[in-house]
Amino acid sequence: MIRLVIYGKIVQPFEITPKELALSSIPMGESAEASAQLLSYFSDGLEVVEHSFTNADAAQYFEIAVAPLAADQLAEGIKSGLELKVTVKPGLPLGSFKQRIRLKTNLPEDSEHEIPITGTVVGP
């Protein structure tokens, strides 16, 4: 009899952390920022080739910037990564809001993803 033991880590080809961006208590008339990391475990040169906001009425109040992560910012086993910074611009009405960013990447096997954004704009 031969006993075979295998150790390893099962990972998805692509990961977004955190899975949701939550912005609480944004003062009315001010902007706020949140960020997420897009990580590729198997592909070099991860890129966002297209993005859109699912709530078109509020899209004008949101802006994203994408920048590559340096090699020293990537954990072991991750081949490439991006930092996605989301800015909520002033002008959203008081109360809670929901928005989703739809991303399309250059990864052939797993190219479309959505990131929910939630938050609350508060008054004085």
Describe the structure.
This protein is mainly β. The chain is built from no helices and eight strands. 0% of the residues lie in helices and 52% in strands. It has a four-stranded antiparallel β-sheet with strand order 1-3-6-5, with no helix packed on it. Strands 2-8-7-4 form a four-stranded mixed β-sheet, with no helix packed on it. β7 (95-105) and β8 form a beta hairpin.
Please supply descriptive tags for the structure shown above:
124 residues, mainly beta, four-stranded mixed beta sheet
Concise overview:
Helices cover 0% and strands 52% of the residues. The protein has no helices and eight strands.
Decide which structural class fits the backbone: mainly beta
**Beta-strand proportion:** over 45%
Helix coverage percent: under 10%
Count of helices? Answer: 0
Strand order, sheet with most strands: 1-3-6-5
Instruction: Write down the overall mean pLDDT.
Output: 92
Shape: elongated
What is the distance, rounded to the nearest whole angstrom, between the alpha carbons of the first and last residues? 74 Å
Q: Give the topology string: H per helix, E per strand.
A: EEEEEEEE
The description of the largest β-sheet is: 4 strands, antiparallel
Q: List segments where confidence is low: pLDDT < 50 over at least 5 consecutive residues.
A: none
What is the radius of gyration computed over CA atoms, rounded to a whole number of angstroms? 18 Å
The total count of strands amounts to 8
